[in-house]
Amino acid sequence: MEELVVDVARSGGVSNYLDEVFPDAEAVKEHAAEFAERVSWEASAAEEDYHGGGVDAADFLPAASRFLERGFANLESYRSKLLDIKDQRTSLLNHLTELKAINAELVQARREESQLRRAKEAGDSMAAIHHAVQQRNGHACIQLIGSLTGIANQVREANDPELETAISKMCSEAVTVAKSAYEEDLRLSLEAEGFPMAVPNATSKPKGLEQIQDRLAFLDAWQSTTTHLGLNENSDLQQPWSIAALIRDGISRYRFHFSSRSSSLSDPHHPEWAADFVFARLTEAMPFLAIIRPQADVAFANALIGEYVVRIISDMKTANDGELIRHAATVTMALELRLHGLQHAGLTSPVELLVNDEWFVSTWAAAEMSHAEQKTSEAVQKILSGDWTVDEASSVASAIQNAEETCSLLEDAKTKAKVFGLITKPVLQSVRSTLRGTVAGEAENTDFDVTLLDADRFRACCRAASLAASVGNMLNEFQESSIFYMLMVEACANGEDSGSPLFKQDVRRFQQEQAHLSSSIVRCVVDRFRNDLVPYRNCVVYGDLSAPSPDSVLSHDLSGELREPMQLLEHRLGLIQSALGRTRAANRIWREIADELDKQVFEDIFILAFAGGDQGTLEVANSSNDFLSAKMRGRILRQICFDASVLVSLFEIFTKKVSKVFQRLSEATTLLILSIAGEDEWNKTSERSLVLSVLEKLPTRPGDQTASEAATVLRENLHVTTLTPREAKEMLIIAGLLLPPLT
Questions:
Q1: 46-64 pLDDT, tens digit each
Q2: pLDDT (tens digit, 9 = 90+) per residue, 224-279?
Q3: Under a CB-based contact definition with an 8 Å cutoff, are residues 345 and 300 in contact?
Q4: Distance from C-alpha of 336 to C-alpha of 305, rounded to nearest angstrom
Q5: What local confidence, expressed as pLDDT, does residue 613 receive?
Q6: What is the model's pLDDT at position 275?
Q7: With the C-alpha atoms ordered 444, 449, 451, 455, is the resulting torsion angle positive or negative?
Q8: Distance CA 270, CA 272 (A)
Q9: Orientation angle between helical segments 560-580 and 630-649, nearest 10 degrees
Q10: Which residues of 30-55 are buried (b: 16+ CB within 10 A; e: fewer)?
Q11: What's 268's DSSP letter?
């Protein structure tokens, strides 16, 4: 077998060896083929000769028989040679197959020998690492872990996954063994100093400081080396092992007190206990840790703050109580203020950690919103019912201020804007909804007749208008003067939430609510007075108005048909004045009411009713009341003037210059009262003839120079500026001055 291996190797392979051993195999095949072809040819030639008669049958048959025998003999010889060659090649191939299997076993044996050698080397290195750890020989540990990693790399190159996995486990175990041993030594050293159970005095140098720092130095070197060797996953995200070991027991104490079911302090309804513990522990431990290791105090503080926040979020999710979440957030904000007092740079903000949790910030904002909405709604209801104090009056402002104070401790401006919007916008929406329901009630029936508002609803409507105005003004002042608001707007404008400022739309909506409420108040007063004025108007038209005698003074009673309407009007004006006071909102409302009533009474009573025709139709005004005597007309005019003066006087609670508000009625009354004074008294002045002569010349067509001259005369002599000359002429026609003199 060994000779066969040597021969095959010397020939350069199995194929070459076969060619050398059997060089005549192909020749045998070629000779056999040639012989068979020649036999076939000779047989064909003999057959032709035989059939052609050229060969005697007696000679041909024996010769042919011999020829065939010889041919078959040669063929059998060739066949035997080929079979021998085949058997020899088959035997040789079998030997070669056995040789291949033996060679594979040899290669596997050598590989296993290498694996065993490397496994032994890895085991020896692991044992040496354990020994070095026991001896606390950090330098040897670092060298040996490098050797063990080198063995692992060799195995990896040799493509042996099983051994590679085993040695990798050894490497991980070695890293853990050394790390755990030195961490335990560090814990014992710290415990000897009294940490973390009792924090030692930081004013003096700890006795075991050198040993503690040696342990910390090894952990730093061990982490750096093993990271460089690729034995630490996510090394960029890991805290230094030395720092982690230094603060671990302090964190464990917090978990024992506030995460253990057996601890009496583990009560989610008292987050202030955990906050007090955190602050007290940091106050005690940070000076000591700063001596042990630079930045160890900050690392411990941030780890403890993080643990506190994680526990708070977990407890709040379990409790799921809005008021408790508000309390926890308040406690955390107070803790942050106390931490600022420590004046340590680099401390993590517990509030920022809280608001970085999407669940907590949304739940907290919802709880703050619900609380603010409830308080604001109660205050608004008290304001609308009249049972309110200064606190209720400033409830919306307080909600905004509290939201500002809540968000001012947040670090990120976008987060401030987000939380501030989550708290305040629903509150403002709730206030608007409440205000909107004061007119038509909770059903908000759009077909509701505002003239049917009772005194309580009308008073509530007035207060709602006042509140809408004050809230709108407050929001407007806030967005113009608050630095906090300006920073939020700037943050939103520079980010993805760019758009209109937070309160811009709310200010406009409250202005719209105020306008709607003011319009409802005006409509309620004016429309109701218009409806109540119908009986009085009919009495004027038909001359049934109760009026004093012509020689009486103007200190007589109000017309009976106007007593109830005037009383209701006076009552509602008083409600407006008491609810709104001397505010812009009140000023707009009563002025609009006065303007509407001035126009309404002038047109419906002085012009349309008494004149009996459309405004500006002199012919109708001249002839419609011919059935009334001049005496009766004078009495009615006196009563109308007195009634108008009473109406005007009702607005003296708002202003003393009522004549400037009711300009139409004041000027019409001036014309009528002067005409009632009598022709003789008018003749004593030059104004009578001048006014009458100018107005008599006034044509029926408006717009010529005569109208302009008449307007000048009225303004300079009677201070009539609002009424047009044509309206003044109608007044005098009504008074009878442009008719036959009174008798």
A1: 566 555 555 555 565 666 6
A2: 888 887 777 665 556 788 888 888 888 888 888 888 877 888 888 899 999 999 99
A3: no
A4: 10
A5: 41
A6: 92
A7: negative
A8: 5
A9: 20
A10: eebeebeeebeeeeeeeeeeeeeeeb
A11: T
What is each CA distance from 88 to 8, 13, 29, 77, 202, in whole angstroms? 15, 17, 16, 17, 96
CA distance 212 to 190: 7
The amino acid that residue 462 corresponds to is C
d(CA 386, CA 601) in angstroms, rounded, equals 33
Q: Spell out the long-range contacts of 184-190 with Cβ–Cβ below 8 A and sequence spacing 24 or more.
A: 185/136, 185/211, 185/215, 186/212, 186/215, 186/216, 186/219, 186/242, 186/245, 186/246, 187/245, 187/248, 187/249, 189/215, 190/246, 190/249
The answer, yes or no, to whether residue 67 has pLDDT greater than 90, is no
Q: What is the pLDDT of residue 612?
A: 47
φ and ψ at 543, to 5 degrees? 70, 20
Q: What is the mean pLDDT of residues 521-533?
A: 88
For range 506-513, the mean pLDDT: 80
Q: How far apart are CA 22 and CA 46, in angstroms?
A: 38
Tokens read off for 416: 């401030």
Residue with tokens 């609810």: 579
Q: Please provide the average confidence, as pLDDT, over all residues in the chain.
A: 75
Tokens of 230: 């690729």
